[in-house]
Amino acid sequence: MTKEAEKNYADLTFEQALAELEKLVETMERGELPLDDMIGYFEKGTILAKLCRQKLSRLEKKIEVLVKDDGNSGEWREFDTSSERKQTASPPPNDGFTF
User: Fold this and answer.
1) How far apart are the first and last CA of the chain?
2) Is domain 2-62 annotated with CATH 1.10.3470?
3) How far are the Cα atoms of 15, 23, 34 from residue 11, in angstroms, in the given order?
4) For every one of its 99 residues, what pLDDT tens digit does the chain have, with 9 covering 90 and above?
5) For residues 63 and 56, what is the distance between their CA atoms, to the nearest angstrom?
6) How many Å apart are CA 29 and CA 23, to the nearest integer?
7) Domain residue spans in the chain?
8) Rounded to two decimals, what is the model's pTM?
């Protein structure tokens, strides 16, 4: 069932996979499923969670930041969460003026 389920879910968008995962979890949390069904839901949920992690990982790798060097050309590089942009996003220092 695992390979077949993976094929069935492969074309889902992240949002669709997450919504399906949430439905499975809600059903499982009710505690009304027989054990065999619970195991099947758990297997499907594991596949959907893996799919969501893979999609997020791929998207993170695609995020790039354009870094201007001389104003005429630019350099593309992978997004870095510890980059200068993170620091420049912080609020400006208090210079004594209030608004």
Assistant:
1) 62
2) no
3) 11, 18, 29
4) 567 767 788 899 999 999 999 999 999 999 999 999 999 999 999 999 999 999 988 887 776 444 444 455 556 566 666 655 444 444 545 555 444
5) 11
6) 10
7) 2-62
8) 0.60
* Rounded Cα–Cα distance for residues 17 and 10 (Å): 9
Token pair for residue 73?
């050309």
- In three-state form (DSSP H/G/I as H, E/B as E, the rest C), the secondary structure along the chain is CHHHHHHHHCCCCHHHHHHHHHHHHHHHHCCCCCHHHHHHHHHHHHHHHHHHHHHHHHHHHHCEEEEECCCCCEEEEECCCCCHHHHHCCCCCCCCCCC
The residue whose two tokens read 């499907």 is 44
